[in-house]
């Protein structure tokens, strides 16, 4: 039984990496008090989602560009998930840039990036 699980894990290494990145990113977003580390966690979580889309893009069947003859080419990559991931990467970069700009502004205003300290300062105002 364990041999079968190890074989599945070894053959689907992209999914193993996906779950590791998801776990690390989620942990960083929840457990850290520092806003920069939270933003890094969001980026790791996004990267795991990108990896998921790319890993799901490989399908067995005919290549979409071959017309007429039915050529079985084996495993091909569907172009649609690649386009979606490319768009998501651009949105992720914009999100990171806006997040970093907000973090810089928060640090300039309050002098700290710790979430608990920011709550105390905001409660005093």
From TrEMBL:
The keyword Phosphoprotein does not apply. It is a multi-pass membrane protein. PANTHER family: ANTIPORTER SUBUNIT MNHC2-RELATED, MULTISUBUNIT SODIUM_HYDROGEN ANTIPORTER, MNHC SUBUNIT. It comes from the Archaea. The keyword Transmembrane applies. InterPro entries: CPA3_antiporter_subunitC, NUOK/Mnh_C1-like. It is found in: Membrane. NCBIfam families: PRK07375.1-6, PRK07375.2-3. Keywords: Membrane, Transmembrane, Transmembrane helix, Ubiquinone. Gene3D superfamilies: 1.10.287.3510. The chain crosses the membrane at residues 12-30, 42-59, 79-104. GO terms for cellular component: membrane. Pfam families: Oxidored_q2 (PF00420). This is NADH-ubiquinone oxidoreductase subunit 4L.
């Amino acid at each position: 039984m364990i041999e079968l699980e190890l074989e599945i894990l070894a053959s689907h290494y992209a999914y193993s990496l996906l779950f590791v990145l998801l776990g690390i990113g989620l942990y960083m977003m929840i457990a850290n008090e520092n806003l920069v580390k939270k933003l890094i966690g969001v980026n790791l979580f996004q990267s795991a989602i990108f990896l998921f889309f790319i890993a799901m893009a490989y399908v067995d069947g005919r290549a979409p560009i071959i017309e007429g003859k039915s050529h079985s080419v084996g495993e091909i990559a569907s172009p649609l998930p690649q386009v979606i991931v490319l768009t998501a990467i651009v949105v992720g970069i914009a999100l990171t840039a806006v997040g970093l700009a907000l973090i810089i502004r928060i640090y300039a205003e309050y002098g700290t990036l710790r979430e608990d300290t920011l709550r105390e300062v905001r409660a005093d105002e």
